[in-house]
Design brief:
Helix content is 37%, strand content 20%. The protein is of the alpha/beta class and 257 residues long. The protein has one domain: Metal-dependent hydrolases (TIM Barrel). A nine-stranded mixed sheet has the order 1-2-3-4-7-8-9-10-11, with helices on one face. Strands 5-6 form a two-stranded antiparallel ribbon. Strand 3, helix 3 and strand 4 form a beta-alpha-beta unit. Bound molecules: zinc ion (ZN) (2 copies). One zinc ion binds next to loops.
Length: 257
């Protein structure tokens, strides 16, 4: 069964989706689903705090995760140097199936905040983005690297794409780091409606395969039920063409699909 490996429910500060709606939608699509609510610990900048009560999360959702159920329980950890201890402690508190690691900030500023880019050249900001991604991937504990092209969703540059041609050195370092540590690369389908976005992602995933990557997780980043499983047909043909396979995690053990 194919899984949507990146979804947000009401335990994420930016989603109101309840578990029943999400599971009903997954059932309609004939896919499995992993809830990966946000844990972004951002001391000393609490305005960006996206955290939740891990005990409450398992208390409420564990009953839906029976044997043979299409639900698994995960988390999306915000990767920052200051969040290393908090993330490690958080993971220990729950019996998670999978942890996504994601960069959501650059130099303490949210990637969705235009101040991230004002007065700074693209090369400088993107190098910092990939540098911190590689750095945190080298030390933090997680299973798959979330949305490598996240910055392209919000950057205010004329060409916001991650552009492997220009940033191949930085991107290679990210890919080599995750492969060495057994961390997978996520194909986030949020931007797959754009032919341009797919074209820009192709050399990144091709390089991942060439460097030894075998598996990817595929996730929609849905914050509402209608977005679950979005563009999965495109994602499947994309990874098949490159020769990669989808995998999921069960109690943090990799399971090829
Ligand atoms: Zn994210
Ligand atoms: Zn997300």
């Amino acid at each position: 069964m194919i899984f949507d490996c990146h979804t947000h429910t009401k335990f994420s500060a930016d989603s109101t989706m309840g578990p029943r709606f999400a599971l009903e939608q997954a059932e309609r699509l004939g896919i499995g689903i992993i809830f990966t609510d946000h844990f972004d610990f951002n001391f000393p900048n609490p305005k960006y705090d996206f955290t939740f009560d891990v005990k409450q999360y398992f208390k409420e959702y564990e009953p839906y995760r029976r044997d043979g159920s299409r639900l698994r329980l995960g988390v999306e950890l915000g990767l920052r140097e200051d969040s290393r201890d908090a993330n490690a402690n958080f993971l220990k508190q729950g019996n998670f199936d999978m942890a996504i690691g994601s960069i959501h900030l650059i130099d303490d500023t949210d990637i969705y905040d235009r101040f991230c880019y004002e007065g700074r050249p693209k090369a400088e900001v993107y190098r910092e983005y990939f540098r911190s991604m590689a750095q945190e991937a080298s030390v933090q504990d997680f299973d798959t690297l979330g949305h490598i092209d996240y910055i392209a969703r919000a950057a205010t540059y004329e060409n916001p794409e991650i552009d492997y041609g220009t940033f191949h050195g930085e991107i290679d370092l990210v890919l080599m780091t995750i492969i060495e540590r057994g961390i997978l690369l996520e194909l986030n389908t949020r931007r797959l409606g754009s032919v341009r976005a797919m074209k820009e992602l192709a050399p990144v995933f091709t390089r991942y395969k060439k460097l030894g990557g075998k598996y990817v997780t595929i996730g929609s980043d849905a914050h509402k039920s209608s977005a679950i499983g979005e563009y999965f047909d495109r994602a499947n043909s994309f990874i098949n063409e490159i020769g990669l396979r989808q995998a999921i995690f069960n109690r943090r053990q990799l399971e090829p699909i």
